[in-house]
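User: Translation factor GUF1 homolog, mitochondrial, Manduca sexta:
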Amino acid sequence: MVRLVKHLFAVNPTKIYYRYVIRRQSSSDASKKEIDVRRIRNFSIVAHVDHGKSTLADRLLEITGVIKPGAERAQVLDQLQVERERGITVKAVTASLNYTYNNETYLLNLIDTPGHVDFANEVVRSVTACQGVIMLVDANEGIQAQTVAVHNLAKRNNLVIIPTLNKVDLPRANPDKVKKQLKQVFNIDENSVLSISAKKGWGVPELLQSVIERIPPPAVESEGHFRAHIIDTWHDKYRGVLCLAYIHSGRVQVGQAVKWSSDSKVNTVRHLALLRPDEEAIEEAVAGQVVMVGCGPKGGGGVGEQLLSKELAESGAVTGMPPVKHMVYAGIFPADQSQHAMVSDAIRKLALNDSAVSVSPDSSPALGQGWRIGFLGLLHLEVFTQRLLQEHKAEAILTAPSVPYKVKIKGAKLLKQYRTDVILITNPLQLPDPNNIEEYYEPFVLGTIITPVEFIGAVTTLCIDRRGAPLPSSAVDDQMTMLQFVLPLAEVVVDFHDTLKSITSGFASFDYQDNGFHPSPLVRMDILLNGSLVDELSTIVHASRLEYNARRLTEKLKAMIPRQMVQVAIQAVVGGKVYARETIKAYRKDVTAKLYGGDVTRRKKLLKQQAEGKKKMRSVANIKIPRDTFIDVLKKQ
Ligand SMILES: Nc1nc2c(ncn2[C@@H]2O[C@H](COP(=O)(O)OP(=O)(O)OP(=O)(O)O)[C@@H](O)[C@H]2O)c(=O)[nH]1
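Assistant: Predicted structure for Translation factor GUF1 homolog, mitochondrial:
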């Protein structure tokens, strides 16, 4: 089952959760000594899903003495229930490992980066702490779309890349062919490519030596004021917020006064530890290190923030990290409003651990008080809600997800209100009156697809159908091609990947990266149930898709909403004009049945009451909509 799910999420890999302990390292002395920055190596393992990151991490932990060779459970790193159920890894931390090479002890920080674009933010913040990556490529499957994505990311961040072929033990492995692909696609010198079997451990010690030889130590200012940026945060019941921090300059000690870049309050460092991956308390950490820091229960701090010495914070010389770009927004509401405080607390705690979400208050006539949450993609959204339920027992209703748009506004009043002429729309209901909109902008992505050549036609048709604009393609080798398209994000987030997999028998892989906002003819389409607007079902659609979307949405709602006591009219409307309509017939309840042979005035009274009841339901749109409708209606095609 797990394997099956893994394939379903073939480009939905993620991050690794390194928070288990098998055996403490016997090297605690090393952490008490002053660390020489020249003997620190900060690196990540990056790869397409299933190319062997977790397996290689296991081997590295074995070689450095963290786990015993041949430990029974493989890939012990995935701990969250959601990870086990989905067969994907979702959460990243780090492992600080000691390794002796040429009689010198090195501190190797294995900083995990997630692969899937939904977690791109995590990758970006992780790589800022790395100087190099091990780029794994399955010697049997060859380069896949995500290999291209992680390679580009490493290049953009000027990281040293150690190209490594994995699974060379497999009988079908073809290292020579994949080396040629690496040369063809990335211009990687074939002689620099290492070959390993993470499963058997072949070539792994040599790989570790290459990490030391090829990846430079961090270029940091050992002297000067303490400055660190936060890679990850999580909540500890007793110690409050704990953070994983990469130290850019200076040093930090337990008891030191520090400040968050976002806050004027002075905090004291109370907890300092190396994660090996088990915590190993230390008294001091220096620039170049990745350490766990805690400032006590009220110590605060969030991912992307910086932790600074009090003096540096007060000098005003620090600039912030770039803000996260959210790809998908959805409303989240407590299933039961009496649980609002509990769900609120759960969201706060989870958002602390999942830095990539943005949370703002929201309210809906149908669903009550809730939150509008920004995610990096649909998988991210699903994982977040699943974790809410599993880890915090918080049951929430999710509204239909939508991508953010931008509009250029006109009219003195609006311009004064927003103090800018281009505003970001994260909820279709925020759209100003069309008369006040000068131009609409839609988010686009650069999609990379690697496919066997026989599917080029089918893939191109799919992309064009999704309003994609083709870019020049290039050969990976004589059997595989890399296609690139600029695609509207709205056409990609919902079911693009599933469709691509089905038309290519699972052989094509897909990845995408942000391509910014571009002008686009958009309109807001509303759904009326018996004349009442259902806020949660409003969508922004491309003008060319209006009639199709109107029909599709009303038909799907008809199939999803169960029959009610009253007839339900479902209408898709733009600016007062109805583009599609469906009707769900009412159950007919014979309220006079009990009055067989009774008095006629009594019978009339009951019929009148029933008619009034129906009217009332219409006027308040008291229609029971299954909660999954709000997400499924946009999801399933
Ligand atoms: N034969 C062989 N199988 C391997 C090797 N390395 C990994 N595998 C197998 O490949 C599959 C995927 O390995 P993982 O380590 O989970 O891959 P991953 O890249 O971490 O995958 P995600 O955690 O889902 O991102 C597992 O069944 C491993 O046992 C290898 O060197 N040889």
